[in-house]
Design a protein that fits this description.
The structure holds two protein chains of two kinds. Chain A is of the alpha/beta class. Chain A has twelve helices and 17 strands. Chain A is globular, with a radius of gyration of 25 Å. A two-stranded antiparallel ribbon of chain B has the order 1-2. The chains are: A alpha/beta, B mainly alpha. The interface between A and B is large, with 37 and 39 residues.
Chain lengths: ~400, ~290
Amino acid sequence: MTERFPLSRRDFIASAGAAALTSAIAAPALAQSANKPLKIGMVTSLSGPFTALGESMRAGMQMFLAENGGKLAGRAVELIVEDDQAKPDEGVRKFRKLLGQDNVDIVSGVISSAVALAVRDVVTEAKALTFISAGSANDLARKAASPFVFRPTKTNWMLGHTAGLWAYEKLGKTGCMTIGADYAAGREYIGDFVATYQQQGGKVGKQLWAPLGTTDFGPLLTTIAAEKPEFIYSFFAGSDAVRFLRQMREYRLSGKVKLIGGGALFDQEDVVSAVKEAALGGLNTCNQSPTAPSSAAFTKAYQAARNVMPGEMGTAGYVTGQVIKAAVERVQGDLSNKEKVKEALLAREVETVFGPMPFDPRNNQAILDIYVNEIKEGAGGVPVNQVIHTYKAVRDPGPVA
Amino acid sequence: MGFYAVQSLNALSFSMLLLLTGLGLSVVLNLMNFVNLTHGSFFLLGAYVGVYWLASGAPWWLAFPVAFVAAGLAGFLLERFPFRQFYARTHLMQVLLTYGLSVIFADLMRWGFGAQILSPEIPEALRGVVFIMDMPFPIYRLFIIGFGAALAFALWFVIDRTIWGAVVRACVTDRGFVETLGLDTRRIFTAVLVISAGLGGISGALGAGILSAYPGLDEEVLILALIVVVAGGLGTFRGTVLSALLLGFAMTFSKVWVPEFSNVVALAIMAALLVALPEGLVAKKVRQV
């Protein structure tokens, strides 16, 4: 009978004691790895053409971490911010530094699509958990998608496409002109808009292009005044957008010709707050709006902290924080198994300031609500992006099968 | 017809901006043989001063003299140290010094004025448009054309037709000789640099109405100004005027006819010009004995 219990009582006590002992030794070690500070690297543009955008993005992320008491899933967070100067080679260098030298757990940020494309191989090789906050070239969600690169932001197609739908439905079937910044992003926005608009049956007239950093839009605006279009689809960003809108008004085109553009053309913080009334009446499609219901609390907090309403980049920094938080919390702070982190993040949507955000399992690209914003006078006569329509759950076509 | 009339005015207003910026740079280069790459910083400083002045509610027309004074003051301090120590050195050393300084100033201004894009409140009086054969043209641009032409003429007159100008030109030719006449050449050079910096500032304040003010504008402007000065020919006033007009018209009409290739076409014209006339549009007659 004793054969049925190979363990004697003495043995049992000994082994139980040993087990207790090992777990006593092991437990603090485990707890320690969970309590080790969570290092988040953020690469953004703090000099060069996207300086203002980069500062907003950093501020958004810092705001988010401050609101969470500097802790995610019980782990203290250490944020390391690096400047890529909006240059791909500099971006690669900074990602290598964060991953190789600082040993961060998560990398995030990036405004320039060129930087996002350049660092893609670096983070893929290192199997680093990556959250691209803003780089939005279509290829990032298509050819250049990568298993551990998450994209809590839009692709250019999502905005160009929805603008095409809206323009055809509400603005007119003919009398369309386009004018865009002549570089990769401008070509994508205008191209995707034209493709959708024509697919619907719309007719596109003259298409104008202006080099990046155009100082004087006068000649192009005189051409537009001579062509007399019904409406213009346009894509410019940053200082180009400011100059374009101001000069539109100087040439008395603002009221006469309806203007619809990509979100960056009427970015609340970067552009609208600079051009003020010159933006009134403008339309844009964007994944962000300061007046979206999901953004209400954030808009208020951001305004209190920075004295300006948030634009896309400030919001993107914050949203990146929200998505990282969701990922870290869903695995109880343990990022050692990356497959598990990915599974948890893709499992269900994240509630963000942009709106509900599920991820597309094919390419880790966020599926987003796209807002049609119109610039109207808000409280105190300040021009504000007001949501007039929402395209629900817009999903990039993704990698072509 | 109206279309081309307005496009020509567009070209003219852009040429004026190029001219004003180029003039400040060329004055120092021509008269003092000093390469000053901080000129873009003076422009941006003037632009910021203009923006803040126009937002302050003080009389708007004072914005331009104030920008002149602010940038001139910066020039005055810089001339004391370290520019003065570099007048006698090679151009390469001057480039290294002034380029380095321009990077520092870019950072300082970003820190002081912020990184966001600032646009001036254009005064009510200049905000309208005139219709030329049914085509709109902003009054502010007419103002730039007029103001720029007046300023350029005044500068030409002073340098070419007055005793002051003669003294400055003599300094360049033979500094020692001017000293023997009992004139303090160091002071003369200071004055020229202050005027050059002030010109940069005033063109910044004027230009901000079209270009806005933001970090990075300094470099964009500097490059255009360098093209104007180099293509115009060193040491000539008329050359700078001619090349500003040429670049302005080339950039404007290439945007009208071939918008996709506007930069390529405009810069190719300037490059071809340099190949054909390596001394610049108007070469200084050099007499060698």
